Sequence to fold (423 residues):
Amino acid sequence: MSINSTKPLPFTKKQIGEIVKNYPTPFYIYDEEGMLKNVRKFLKAFSILPGFKEYFAVKATPNPFIMKLLKKEGLGADCSSFPELLLAQCVGITGEDVMFTSNDTPAREYIKAKEMGAIINVDDISHLAFLEKNAGLPDLICFRYNPGPLRGGNIIIGDPKEAKYGFTKEQLFEGYALCKKKGVKRFGLHTMIVSNELQIEEFQKTAQMLFGLVIEIHKRTGINLEFVNLGGGIGIPYKPEQKAVDYDKVAQGIKVLYEQMIVKNQHHPLKIYLECGRVITGPYGFLVTTTLHLKHIYKDYVGVDACMANLMRPAIYGAYHHITVLGKEKMPCKKMYDVTGSLCENNDKFAINRKLPEIAQGDILVIHDVGAHGHAMGFQYNGKLRSAELLLRGHGTVVQIRRQETPDDYFSTLDFKKMQAFR
Ligand SMILES: Cc1ncc(COP(=O)(O)O)c(C=O)c1O
Fold:
């Protein structure tokens, strides 16, 4: 019989027992030491690539405390909206340390990105006239490429030819030529093909595709690109039997292609950027939740005080998130449960048919690998309130980096006085 947890935790049951005295469950807790150790390993591996920079995908964990820690390590910010640009600005990430990648972009977002001196990554050729009219063309511009039928995608991001993002190949040539004519001086190229990808060959395929384009773009337009941004999408081992991506292997594979394609064709130096989110914060966030009810009908249910409004990935992607029953790590997984929240949606389940140790009311469950695209995807349907975010620092200290929402937050966009006078 299997044992409950083969995934390590950065805290003990005793520590969580102390933390819940001040911060009621459900809450997110991030492991600062683990996160920073990983970031340093990531940067060391990719530093073999010319001009390497990682632009942390803010959408993964849009918390300024986390962003401040990452900035200190040298990471920039990949922003996709006005509020994300404001977040970057408030932690002091500005200028070309910001990459602005959006789609269907409103004018004020282009204006703000331009004001901040961010690298604007344009999603469509028609946006060039829109950007010029509303914000003016910048000196440095980047285009997002969608290879369409030339590449397969993967489950989260989908098939490129069905995806709404980016320029076609022909549009790239046209766009670069047009911008050159209009006086734009510096150019970059971006793509984002896969998401949560564990196969390192996929990153090599992306590098090969973009390096090939760098050569072609030069032939067709005379432009020497300054950088390529290979996007995010490095996956994490959500399941205990999966293996983490070896950063060194990914970086070395890209480096070999760089020598073969970029150096050989005299396009060196070309800077290499990434904009990963998941692999930077994902494994270092945990959702801590308490068992409220045990229900036995046609199946056995464990009802916890978190719900899909706190973590939506299992419901929308069928994503696996490992669960540890705190203090029962060594107990045999004798029972099969669905672990559910309280939302009036039957897909509000953190796990379906999951073998776990016998659970009792009050048991604390830890849901793993929620540091990226976890709290960030939270919502308020059914009047559910977003949970707090805590940071576990060295020596076991805890800092609240976002408080729990209250009913006042939920009602803050409503004018009750106006409603009372309303006939
Ligand atoms: C344009 C873009 N860049 C980067 C990312 C980050 O992806 P990941 O967190 O999987 O690395 C995303 C994720 O949705 C994205 O849409």
Residues 57, 59-60, 78, 101, 192, 195-196, 231-234, 275-278, 372 surround pyridoxal-5'-phosphate (CB under 6 Å). The chain has two domains: 13-29+283-411, 32-281. The chain has a mean pLDDT of 96.
